[in-house]
Every structure is written in structure tokens, then in C-alpha cells.
């Protein structure tokens, strides 16, 4: 399994009136994790776009475990989950670096659409197959 990690400082604008990170921001943290993963492993959105595809999220899940507050630091661990079909799957752990607590877990699934026609690709694009071979996935 391949994975990446990124630390994120919690900003005031990411909290609600109670000073807790608003639940919707976890999807943004997952996005930050995917971007860090893409940079580390050569699977960046702009590269996918240049190959003629877009990869929208079609499924997401979040399980909230503990609160995070303004001024704390989180670590997002992003793990690639191999699949035989034409999709990209990740699992996430959000750890509060300040307290050491596991704050959230989650999953996302992306599919390949032709960049221009927006038609769903049922077979993995060649570049993605080659990427998976490179990392023995």
C-alpha cells in the first residue's frame, strides 16, 4: 500500500461558532491529502487533465471521532486503495497532532470521465494502468 501525509494548521475560518472545525471542512482536508499524494506519486490533477480526463468524486464517507479546534494541527494520512475497475479510491485518517487523537476517518471514490465529452470511462486509461504497474498495485 502506498500513502502520503500532510500536516495542516487549523485556521479560524475553518471553525464554527463553538470553535470546532466545521464538519464540511474534512472533505477539504481529504482534498489536501489527495493533492499531496498526487505530488508524491505523480498522479496530479493537472497531469490527469492533460491526458484527457477528469476524475470527479462519486462517493465520500466521513466518520467523525473527536473534535479539532482553532490553532491545533492535524495530520492527514492518505492511503491508496487498489481496485481492478476504472476508479481511484483512497482511505484517510485525520490525526490531531496537538493531542494525538484520531479525529476522523474516511474514504473517497473517483471515476474517470473523458475531459471533453464527460462520458464515463469503463476501462482504466492507459496512463493509469501504467501508473499502477509502476507502483506494483
From TrEMBL:
<dbReference type="InterPro" id="IPR006684">
    <property type="entry name" value="YbgC/YbaW"/>
</dbReference>
<dbReference type="InterPro" id="IPR029069">
    <property type="entry name" value="HotDog_dom_sf"/>
</dbReference>
<protein>
    <submittedName>
        <fullName>4-hydroxybenzoyl-CoA thioesterase</fullName>
    </submittedName>
</protein>
<keyword id="KW-0378">Hydrolase</keyword>
<dbReference type="InterPro" id="IPR050563">
    <property type="entry name" value="4-hydroxybenzoyl-CoA_TE"/>
</dbReference>
<comment type="similarity">
    <text>Belongs to the 4-hydroxybenzoyl-CoA thioesterase family.</text>
</comment>
<dbReference type="Pfam" id="PF13279">
    <property type="entry name" value="4HBT_2"/>
</dbReference>
Amino acid at each position: 500500500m502506498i500513502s502520503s501525509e500532510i500536516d495542516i494548521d487549523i485556521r479560524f475560518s475553518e471553525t464554527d461558532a463553538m470553535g470546532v472545525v466545521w464538519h464540511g471542512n474534512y472533505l477539504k482536508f481529504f482534498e489536501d491529502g489527495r493533492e499531496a499524494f498526487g505530488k508524491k506519486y505523480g498522479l496530479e490533477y493537472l497531469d490527469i487533465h492533460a491526458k484527457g480526463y477528469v476524475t470527479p468524486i462519486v462517493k465520500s464517507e466521513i466518520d467523525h471521532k473527536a473534535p479539532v479546534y482553532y490553532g491545533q494541527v492535524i495530520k492527514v494520512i492518505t492511503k491508496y486503495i487498489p481496485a481492478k475497475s476504472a476508479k481511484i479510491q483512497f482511505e484517510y485518517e485525520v490525526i490531531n497532532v496537538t493531542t494525538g487523537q484520531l479525529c476522523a476517518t474516511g474514504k473517497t471514490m473517483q471515476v474517470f470521465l473523458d475531459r471533453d465529452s464527460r462520458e464515463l470511462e469503463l476501462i482504466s486509461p492507459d496512463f493509469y494502468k501504467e501508473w499502477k504497474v509502476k507502483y506494483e498495485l
